[in-house]
Amino acid sequence: MSIRQISLIGAPTDIGAGARGASMGPEALRVAGIAATLAAHGLEVADRGNLAGPANPWLPPEGGYRHLAEVTAWNQAVHDAMLAELRADRLPILLGGDHCLGLGSISAVARHCRERGRKLRVLWLDAHADFNTSALTPSGNLHGMPVACLCGHGPQALVEMSGAVPAIDPKWVRQIGIRSVDPGEKRFVHEVGLEVFDMRFIDEHGMRHAMELALATLDANTHLHVSFDVDFLDPDIAPGVGTTVRGGPTYREAQLCMEMIADTGRLASLDVMELNPALDLRNQTAELAVDLIESLFGKSTLMRA
């Protein structure tokens, strides 16, 4: 049964990123009309406003991590806010902010699934695998590490946030649209058996087949979480991100991806991450993101059986 009550949670920080500006992402999504767009589909939308957290000190990495204390504080705030909405049987949408916040969000979802005895499937829509560690990272930026931390590879404060270590099993994750993975990270992804539908797979087999495999075996007891990094999209259509990588999904491929997720009726939580209005053109990336989110919640060209 699909959830009809939506909560928007803003997390205005670029604390884990290598470029400033993702802190303005939540407001750009609001300006692009996310609340009204979802409400037009008969959903009850409550905007919870923005979370508060430490300012970005913009310091070099220490011990392989940049801003670890601040990243931990922001993720704890995200975790607590997401968990409160899930426990109230609402569907939370996290408006990022950089993708390090996916750690707090999915930690909350994993905790909630344990409490309810539900299975979890995470779709990670991204140009990057985000499976770096302090030993592998070229930058120390924590927005390149959330999936590794969720799988138990990272600093104690982050890996323990869900109340269990690891928060998730790599087998629960499906990564889609990947096309930029660091050399050491590539080996690590292979070692842990992460299921990745990279752009070569999508080029060879099509988005439909990739999504059929990514969504296989979902059942009524599965909580589907989508973590949507806007750099998943090709930068020709979505320039407003700090980490553009050419060769991403086209508009139609992205729409198909979202519509197939909607068709499952299992979507129960969502992150929208890494939107950087400072790098955008007249808010077009935010407007595209809202268009795609609308498709996640049932917009389609025709009535379908």
TrEMBL record:
Listed GO MF terms: arginase activity
Pathway(s) where this gene product acts: Nitrogen metabolism; urea cycle; L-ornithine and urea from L-arginine: step 1/1
Keywords: Arginine metabolism, Hydrolase, Manganese, Metal-binding
Matching InterPro entries: Arginase (IPR014033), Ureohydrolase (IPR006035), Ureohydrolase_dom_sf (IPR023696), Ureohydrolase_Mn_BS (IPR020855)
Domain of life, source organism: Bacteria
Catalytic activity: L-arginine + H2O = urea + L-ornithine
Cofactor: Mn(2+)
Bound cofactor: record note: Binds 2 manganese ions per subunit.
EC number from the UniProt entry: 3.5.3.1
Keyword Manganese: yes
Lineage: Bacteria, Pseudomonadati, Pseudomonadota, Betaproteobacteria, Burkholderiales
Classification via PROSITE patterns: ARGINASE_1, ARGINASE_2
Family note: Belongs to the arginase family.
Database matches in Pfam families: Arginase
Protein name per Swiss-Prot or TrEMBL: Arginase
